[in-house]
Write a structure and sequence with these properties.
Layout (H helix, E strand, L loop, with lengths): L19 E5 L1 H7 L11 E6 L3 E7 L19 H20 L6 E13 L8 E12 L2 E10 L2 E14 L1
Antiparallel strand pairs: 1-2, 2-3, 3-5, 4-7, 5-6, 6-7
Length: 166
């Protein structure tokens, strides 16, 4: 699948809240957050608007270790992993929003509220995690998120994170 904005270089730095970076590939995501296999749960970020919102993409594969135990005959992507994918997408949004000020900092999960799981996510699904910043006070940020598969909401939650030195 081709992105219409694929010609925009991913390494180009843009400053300022509200500016869009069309796509962040896995290398850029790994620069932004410290998560690594098997716990890196965002494959790409698209439609990032600094200080406002982002969409994380998670391609769910049967090859993920979690499916060895959840559940062997009926593989279902765990809800906690969906929530973590939401948090990681928000972490990328925070780091891209703060820019150089985020170097050496980590985004820590503080709370999860109103989590709802509406439909199972299974191998072969592409989950699109829509994250929106609700507010920021100092180093605490609050987000709302929806995870969708084929345009259908499969999960939603609001959550908070704190930005601290590593």
């Amino acid at each position: 699948m081709a992105d219409s904005d694929a010609s925009v270089p991913e390494s180009v730095e843009k400053a300022g809240e509200g500016e869009t970076r069309s796509t962040l590939d896995i290398a850029r995501i790994m620069e932004a957050i410290p998560h690594r296999y098997p716990f890196l749960l965002v494959d790409r970020v698209v439609d990032l608007v600094r200080g406002v919102s982002a969409v994380g993409i998670k391609n769910v594969s049967i090859n993920e270790g979690v499916f060895q135990g959840h559940f062997p005959r009926h593989p279902v992507f765990p809800g906690v992993m969906i929530i973590e994918s939401m948090a990681q997408t928000a972490g990328v949004l925070v780091v891209e929003t703060l820019g150089p000020a985020a170097r050496g900092k980590l985004v820590y999960f503080m709370s999860v509220e109103n989590a709802k799981f509406r439909k199972p996510v299974v191998p072969g699904d592409q989950m699109r995690v829509h994250v929106t910043k609700e507010r920021q006070r100092g180093n605490v940020w609050k987000f709302s998120a929806e995870a969708k598969v084929d345009g259908t909401v499969v999960a939603e939650a609001t959550y908070a994170a704190m930005i601290l030195d590593s």
